[in-house]
Design a protein that fits this description.
With about 400 residues, the protein is of the alpha/beta class. It has helices at about 20-25, 40-60, 75-90, 105-115, 135-140, 165-175, 195, 235, 245-285, 310-320, 340-345, 350, 365-390; strands at about 10, 70-75, 95-100, 120-125, 145-150, 175-180, 200-205, 215-220, 290, 300-305, 320-325, 355-360.
Length: about 400
């Protein structure tokens, strides 16, 4: 019986494997430490104390000044929607939102719904072929009616990093609030919300080896806030509902471990990413790196192959037990090319051939070796298929 090799997992921008340390930290909340943290008895106090510890850990990762600035939510999508709606509700004299065309679907969908209902006018700022925001268009869109500018910290498909400090300052000059979806950036690169000067920031545990279904919204002290889910005093009245203590405790440990790992793991991960990138460019004629000329997350590589369907490459990779993706997990299964790649005007010849490889601190050099070995075989198969499809000449 042939033993199959272990999976090489390079889809970490979709989700990461939960750390053993995180799982162990969560277990007590399913048994001994089961109480409601809002209860006044000692069991409830113990659960409440665990939330305080986790809040401090997430606060440290984000560079927040005060623990009370961290609001726990069900995940990145809820945090994003909360930030957008709160900005509108707390500024009745402002009804415009400025965002980018390459945001996460949760941002784009929330803005589209507000636009359809007539609650807000939305300005969608384009990007260039390298995924960089059009700063002139951004500046022009900001004005006296702008309630919120919401621009991601880093793109989930390409890893392109946005100049959030500059963007926040420009928004503030117009009197608007600034929010950034940092789901892909938090835990991978250093984040300092105080230095950057943002008003709200979104983070999610499962992108940094934490549990799914738990996220956070940083809300700068002094920023007016309206909860998306009212009705209870949890999270200082900013998010009703009994807290998910197990997931929050796991998020705290994940945040602490990620913060400790960034200084030494980031360079190692970047070296693996760059090696994979360089070798694929050499192996596959006509391939290109999407966003390759921009500052990117160290773990993210989006490769577009000429005249090749991404699904074919992904299937061949999966047969070799290598996990990657064709873009955002939130839009997987769609037959349409990625909205990010279309916004970047990726050539039509490459538009349907984009594969995203995303690393985590669990990956090692042998993973890159496996991918490169399999990619060389895939190239041979695709070339042979292409030749067999060519018309015969007499």
């Amino acid at each position: 019986m042939t033993t199959q090799p272990p999976w090489v997992y390079l889809d970490n921008n979709a989700t990461t494997r939960m750390s053993t340390w995180v799982a162990e930290a969560m277990l007590p909340f399913f048994s001994d430490n089961f109480a409601n943290p809002s209860s006044s008895h000692p069991l409830g106090a113990a659960a409440s104390q665990a939330l305080q510890v986790a809040r401090a850990q997430v606060c440290t990762l984000l560079g927040a000044a005060l623990e009370k600035e961290v609001v726990f939510t069900s995940g990145g999508s809820e945090s994003n929607c909360t930030a957008i709606l709160s900005a509108l509700e707390t500024q009745p004299d402002r009804d415009e939102i400025v965002t980018s065309v390459v945001e996460h679907p949760s941002i784009l969908a929330a803005c589209a719904r507000l636009e359809r209902s007539g609650r807000a006018r939305v300005h969608r700022i384009p990007v260039d072929c390298n995924g960089n925001l059009d700063l002139d268009a951004y500046r022009s869109a900001l004005g006296a009616r702008t309630a919120l500018a919401t621009i991601q910290w880093a793109n989930n498909e390409t890893g392109v990093i946005f100049p959030v400090k500059i963007l926040a300052a420009m928004a503030h000059q117009a009197g608007a609030l600034f929010h950034s979806d940092a789901v892909q950036a938090a835990g991978k690169i250093p984040i300092d919300v105080q230095w950057v000067g943002v008003d709200m920031v979104t983070a999610s545990a499962h992108k940094m080896h934490g549990p799914k279904g738990i996220g956070a919204l940083y809300v700068r002290n002094g920023v007016k806030f309206e909860p998306l889910i009212p009705g209870g005093r949890q999270e200082r009245g900013r998010r009703a509902g009994t807290e998910n203590c197990a997931a929050i405790a796991g998020f705290g440990i994940a945040a602490e471990l990620a913060g400790r790992a960034i200084p030494h793991e980031t360079p190692r991960i970047e070296r693996m990413r760059d090696r994979l990138e360089g070798e694929i460019l050499r192996l596959v004629p006509g391939s290109m790196v999407v966003g390759g000329e921009s500052d990117r997350l160290p773990n993210t590589l989006n490769m577009a192959f000429k005249d090749v369907e991404a699904d074919v490459v992904l299937l061949l990779l999966e047969q070799a037990r290598i996990a990657a993706s064709s873009g955002s997990a939130c839009s997987s299964g769609s037959m349409e090319p990625s909205h990010v790649l279309r916004a970047m005007k990726v050539p039509f010849s490459h538009l349907r051939g984009a594969i995203r490889f995303s690393f985590s601190r669990e990956n090692v050099e042998k993973d890159v070796d496996r991918v490169l070995h399999v990619m060389s075989q895939i190239v041979e198969k695709l070339e042979a298929h292409s030749l067999s499809m060519e018309p015969a000449y007499e």
